[in-house]
Amino acid sequence: MIITRKALDRRTFLRGVGTAVALPFLDSMVPALALANTVKKPPVRMAFVYVPNGMDMRNWNLNYEGKLGELPRILKPLEPYKDDIIHFGNLTHNGGRALLDGAGDHGRCCASYLTGIQPRKTLVDIKAGVSFDQIVANQIGNQTRFPSLELGLEDARQAGDCDSGYSCAYTNNLAWKSETQPLPPILDPRVLFERMFGNGVAMSPEARARKSKYRRSILDFVTSDTARLESDLGPSDRRKLDEYLSSIRAVEMQLEKAEKDNAQIDPHMDKPYGVPADFAEHFQLMSDMMTIAFQADLTRIITFLVTHEGTSRAYREIGIADGHHPLTHHRNDPVLMEKVAQINSYQLRQFAGWIEKMKATKEGDSTLLENCMIVYGAALADGNRHSHEDLPTIMVGRGGSHFKSGRRIVSRKETPMCNLFLTMMDRMGVHTEHFGDSTGRLDGLDLA
Q: Which candidate, 183, 157, 192, places its Cα nearest to that of 308?
């Protein structure tokens, strides 16, 4: 890294009409050693990528502790990033369990995932509480443009997978500001893009259609600011800035393609404006913008509901016309179990594509992935049994070189997942002695 004499403000924006483009972490944002006692390091971020309906645990779990060897079938796409992974065993969410019935398991497990709620008798009795991500956002969210971002790919109401308001609330949301106030995920990539780079004014579908007809790249509006900034940057920073702006333009082009494709399918259909019909394209668009959001320090906290809990989505793009949720109640039928494994693997491949991009994004002397804690998993283990113990959970990234990765950590049986959350809170600079059903920090995770 080049240590510059004058530091560029980390909050510098490229501005234009209705546009504000934050910058990535550049070498010129590091003050001269003569002007600072320590070199400024990139911030630590965290994200939660949630997949529904449990996992085919036969093809997820490992039968050993310590250094990771060859990864199992579902995790195989992450093999190139094995050294960046921590694979957890025996983490449990007791709050997802029912005391008297199992009818509301999907609502309970999703509602408990980041809130650590205690067991209730029925689905109606659930009280979600403040989710762990929002506790962190309340403490550090004022340091970024957005305290947190809540994203997703599917709405239970649109999919017809819930029959009441409270059911939808619990299966549709990971982030909760209070017991009764969920933070619904943004599903439309265009809405997310305009929130990240626009002036904050919501647009109607008609206004968006008019704007689309005469649309220019947001980069066209910040040309003058970009030229002025580049004249003061060194070669390395100019290259980083060019790569970053190119990634924004690539997202714009993907959005334009999705919108054109949607218009050709049915121009009169009531649908999210910028949502691609293809699952993989939708995932990539959202994950590309998550990369940009972290890279530009727009936020340090993201929740990503891949599809809502209890989803019956079919994955025809990989030859599976059956609904995901019904398949997970396979009754040990090997044909149905194989389809579940294929869906789990397909979702993980999309996630691995995001990890590849995060790993390739340089940030100071490290990478964007190095400075993140990205948790991928589900709030059910075996979807057939609706089991809530030994949940499928991995963390990718080292939280700023704080964690020793490339290994499997097996805790005592019934160890609360909230113990992991307490440890992550510490890394985000938010310290509390208790959260949910925690019994302490997670043993063996820290380097020290």
A: 157
- Closest by CA position to 87, among listed 59, 68, 70: 68
User: 233: pLDDT confidence band, cut at 50, 70 and 90?
Assistant: confident
Task: Please give the Cα distance from 412 to 88 (Å, whole number).
Answer: 11
440 Cβ contact partners less than 8 Å away, ≥ 6 residues apart: 419, 422
Residue bearing tokens 């990864």: 71
Q: Which of 392, 374, 420, 314 minimizes the C-alpha distance to 45?
A: 374
Tens digit of each residue's pLDDT (9 = 90 or more) over 313-355: 999 999 999 999 999 999 999 999 999 999 999 999 999 999 9
pTM equals 0.89
Give the residues across from 22 on adjacent strands.
Answer: 13
* DSSP secondary structure letter of residue 443: T
pLDDT at 205: 60
Q: Which SS3 state, helix, strand or coil, does residue 377 take?
A: strand
Using CA atoms, how far apart are residues 76 and 308, in angstroms rounded to an integer? 24
Calpha distance 80→406 (Å, rounded): 11
CA 318 to chain centre: 23
Q: Please say whether the dihedral angle defined by the alpha carbons of residues 216, 221, 222 and 227, taken in this order, is positive or negative.
A: positive
Q: Which residues pair with 393 in a beta bridge?
A: 88, 377
Q: Which domains does the chain have, with CATH numbers?
A: 44-187+275-427 (3.40.720)
